[in-house]
Structures are given as C-alpha cells and as structure tokens.
Design brief:
The protein has about 350 residues and is mainly α. The protein folds into three domains: about 90 residues, DNA polymerase, domain 1 (Orthogonal Bundle), CATH 1.10.150; about 190 residues, Intergrase catalytic core (hpI Integrase, Chain A, Orthogonal Bundle); about 30 residues, no CATH class. It has 14 helices and three strands. The model has no long low-confidence stretch (mean pLDDT about 85).
Length: about 350
C-alpha cells in the first residue's frame, strides 16, 4: 500500500518538475502535502486510489484545521491534491476525478506594501557613490525599482546578462536576461537610469581587483566584499556572488537610516512599486504580465487594486459632489486651484 502511494507521488512530482518546469521548492511542497494525505488515508485504511471525494474534503478541511493549519496555509494542500488527481485522470490511472469539486478555503487577501515614490527616492540617495559598495548598492536598488525583478533574479545576474538592441527612435536600448522562479528565462527592459547606475558600479576602480569569472567564462555582476564562511583562497567566482539575505539587510540598513517605515524595507516592496506604477500609467494588462514575469494574469490584476492615484483621478471626475454645491465648495475650489492636498 505504501509502495503504491509512494510510486504514484514520485511519478507525479517527476512530471511536475521535468515536464512542467516546476521549481524544487514547489515540488517539495507538493510532496509534503501529499504525504500528509497518505498518512490521513492510511488511518482510514485506504490508498490514494481508494480515496473518495468526502475523504479529500475532510482532509483538506476539518482534518488540517484540527491540526492547526490556517485557511491560507490550506490552499497549497488543496492545490496539490487537485493537481495530483487531475494528473491521474489524464494518465488513465483513475476513471473519475474525486478531487474535481474540491474548493479552496475562503480567505481575505491583504494588499501588499509598495514602497511609495517619495521613500524610493530617499532610499536611492543613501548609498555613498564614492565607494565600490555604495555604487553596487545604488545599482541594485536602481535595478529593483526600474525593472521589478525578484531579489533572486537580481543576485543571479551575470554581467553578460545585460544585452543591447537598437530602436529606430530611441537608439540603443538595454535589457536584462533574467532567470527566476522555476529556472524560467525572460528579457526585461532596463531603464537608462538603472543602466547608468550599473555602469558607475562597473566603472569603479576597485572592481578590477575582484575575481568574478565563472567556470563557463561569464562574470558575476553583483559581488560581495567579504564572506567569513568562505576561505580566502576560495573567495572568487561564484563564491563572490551576493546573497538574497545580504540584499535584504542592505535595504533595511539604508531604509532605517533614511527613516523609512520598516514595513516598506524589503526587496518585494520595490517590485510592488514597479507593478503599481505600471497600473497607474494604464499599461495594458498583458504587457504588465510579461514585464512582471507572472504566469497567471490574476497575479498582475492585484496591482489594479493598488493603483490608488488612477482610482483617485477617476473618482474626482465622476464624484457627484463636483456637480453640486456643498458648505465647503468654495474652499475645495481654492485648494484645487492652488494644488493644496488638504492634509488635516
């Protein structure tokens, strides 16, 4: 019974990783959820092939709830079970998909924090541009803000991932060749300001003293200056690559110095800023999806909810108070004329 369950799970996970290109993290998560299902079914004296729709509803609902799993954390379990049984149906292993009616738990979705533009400017001006570290940090901040990259994509960049093309109107344009979640590769437009910050970093006289070359001949882009966990003789090439945790610490340090609220001081807040600004500018949803590297357009739609300036402008145009008089109409008109925000 156990061997049959294990064989099915392993075959399913191999399919997810090899055929669908799912990341190691996703595959491990699915494995954990499905093994928990096997444990539950074993208590009922059943295998994965013998499970009923009621068994799956009980497992993903009441059983996980009683074991302290919150609704938000039960969603990955539902996804794993649904996809596993759908795979078995397509493969002819089962004739009926008993997980077809399995529903995700209802949860509220909080809006993430996007780094406000005024804070972004303050953060970007913190690094000391006379030092190699300052130039490097400013370049990384410029890339995060200008491209919306995930921090894993940022630290994974090599110098050769900066590629160029010619535009009939703009002349030279720059792109980043980025490898992110699940090993997927995409091209991301690199704004001129971000590119110039990288040029400042690579033009610093100290960069030539660092051995950044990899065995394949490519060159690590963003390097660390010290790593106590690596022997000095081994501190070159890949060992020089900056880590995601180092980037997070860097953002936190500069942000606290600039007196920016701590909830905005993480790399993903800058990704949220990028996505929100695209939505504010009215960029087509599918273009935004490509720029953000989202697999599902639903992820991109989140930023429509965060584009408060566009919502505010629409509300100002359609607000019924604009068409009638109120006790404060004359004051409001004066505020608009003078561009006063009216903070209390």
């Amino acid at each position: 019974m156990v061997d049959e369950n294990a064989a099915l799970i392993n075959e399913f996970l191999t399919h997810k990783e090899i055929n669908q290109g799912r990341s190691v993290g996703t595959v491990d998560s699915y494995r954990h959820k499905l093994l928990k299902l096997v444990e539950y079914l074993d208590e009922q004296g059943k295998t994965l092939l013998q499970a009923s729709a009621d068994d799956l509803v009980e497992f993903t609902g009441l059983h996980l709830h009683q074991n302290g799993v919150a609704p938000r954390s039960r969603r990955p379990a539902v996804a794993a079970v649904r996809q596993f049984y759908q795979w078995m149906l397509k493969g002819g292993i089962i004739r009926e998909n008993v997980a077809a009616g399995l529903e995700y738990p209802k949860i509220g979705r909080k809006l993430p924090y996007a780094l406000p533009i005024q804070y972004a400017e303050r953060l970007l001006m913190q690094p000391d541009m006379t030092t190699l570290r300052g130039c490097r940090d400013a370049a990384m901040l410029g890339v995060l803000l200008g491209t919306g990259l995930r921090v894993s994509g940022l630290v994974g960049l090599n110098q050769e991932d900066i590629v160029f093309d010619q535009d009939p109107e703009k002349g030279q344009i720059q792109f980043l060749r980025v490898t992110e979640k699940g090993g997927h590769e995409r091209l991301v437009p690199l704004p001129l300001d971000s590119y110039l910050l990288i040029r400042c970093y690579l033009g610093h006289r100290s960069i030539d003293d660092i051995e950044r070359t990899l065995p394949n001949g490519k060159t690590v882009l963003f390097v660390s200056e010290k790593n106590r966990l690596v022997f000095p003789a081994d501190y070159f090439g890949e060992a020089r690559r900056l880590t995601t945790s180092s980037v997070r610490r860097m953002i936190l340090s500069y942000g606290l110095r600039a007196k920016i609220p701590v909830e905005y001081l993480h790399p993903h807040a800058m990704r949220h800023t990028y996505g929100t600004e695209l939505a504010e500018a009215g960029v087509d949803i599918h273009v935004r999806q490509a720029l953000m590297g989202h697999k599902a357009v639903e992820s991109t739609l989140l930023y429509d909810r965060m584009s408060i300036r566009r919502l505010s402008n629409a509300a100002d145009k359609a607000n019924p108070l604009n068409r009638i008089k109120s006790p404060v109409t004359s004051i409001a008109d004066e505020f608009r004329r003078r561009g006063i925000t009216g903070k209390i």
